[in-house]
Amino acid sequence: MSQNDQEGKAPVRGLQDVVAGETRVSYVDGVNGMLIYNGYDVRELAEHTTFDEVVYLSWYGQLPTRSELASFRARLVSEMRLPSQVISMIRLAPAGAHPMDVLRTAVSALSMFDPESGDMSPAANERKLVRLLAQVMTIIADMHRVRSNESVVSPDPGLDIGDNFLYMFRGRQPDEEEKKAFDQLLLLHLDHGFNASTFAARVTASTLADMHAALATAIGTLKGSLHGGANERVMEMLDEIDHVDMVDSYIQGMLDNGKRIMGFGHRVYRVEDPRARVLRHWSERLCHRAAMADLYAISHRIEQVVLAQKGIYPNVDFYSATVQHALGIPRQYFTTLFAASRTAGWLAHVMEQYADNRLIRPTSKYIGGWNRKVVPIAERG
Ligand code: CMC
Predict the structure, then answer these.
(1) Is 288 marked active-site?
(2) CATH of span 230-326
(3) What is the sign, positive or negative, of the torsion defined by CA atoms of 87, 93, 95, 98?
(4) Which of 266, 299, 306 to mutate to test the pocket of ligand 1 (most atoms within 8 A of CB)?
(5) What is the pTM of this model?
(6) In this predicted structure, what is the pLDDT of residue 3?
């Protein structure tokens, strides 16, 4: 490409509105505030189905029958074991290491112990879908237990994957309301079009790298505070606000200083994020139950003030923070839970990419100058 070829080519900043591929997994309707998973409205799925049913939908294109779900659940739970070397690696991580870094590293390590990691046949990839989702859940739960000096908890074959995760993480069975809230939290995070981490996973898959590589890529991408890392930042903001009366001046101060309010705004939604609406309900319910009503009141006031001041709405990360906090999940783990659910979506996209692959390789506008003459190092002073 020459200097002339570059004329008139303007890059689209942040690839906004660029249609970069096709997917059946999900559609984000930013104008009407809807999220569709494989043809179904996510709010309807949240009301009538469970996370594992929707995982099945994402991977196999249809909701399972009762018997299909039973065998799918059994398969997921049976794959929740980790190689002992990976548990040892988790134990070796420094106490201050962020759980997202440990998760990414553990997923990378799994590839070395999975005899099928390099087998790209559709049958092996299908087995890895199930195994990787199950193992990601266990990595997060075991990491928390090990780092809290508590013994790891084996999965209960009678529980589905979401309930098992909460049981293994906290060491006690969730009650019915906790189950419902947690399951919906997982379901709502499962997929979201060509978000940054999903796109990153598809780029990696498009080189025909294996599923472990694509998953590690996605986890690394989710960590940032403009993406999944926002939920942890929301909790840090809530820490700084002692009382609901402080909200207006706190938010005004942030905006006056050009700071972003974490958990607000979205590239695609111009109206309310449908996931935030469901999670607001659970935040209110669980905060009241956990004697944290003040926290919900502060959150709700933040929502009102940001909408009035900036005209922007909460995204999925805003109320996910208080839902997880009220469920007793430490904030450093918030983004790992996002990752656990999104693993199902990422892997669905990876399978789509493999099924109809062409290397994802865009071009760039070169701004590095032209016709510079090389001065040999001896003459550069
Ligand atoms: N707080 C204050 N102002 C904001 C915010 C916010 N959270 N989000 C957007 N804006 C303003 C921004 O300052 C800009 O204003 P102006 O035109 O006056 O300069 C305008 O809105 C457009 O912002 P943008 O950065 O061009 O929008 P974007 O589409 O590139 O950014 C975003 C999307 C999600 C990165 C952004 O809204 C943001 O930084 N939000 C906070 C972080 C966050 O909550 N991330 C989670 C995203 S959703 C779920 C997920 O992926 O995890």
Answers:
(1) no
(2) 1.10.230.10
(3) negative
(4) 266
(5) 0.96
(6) 66
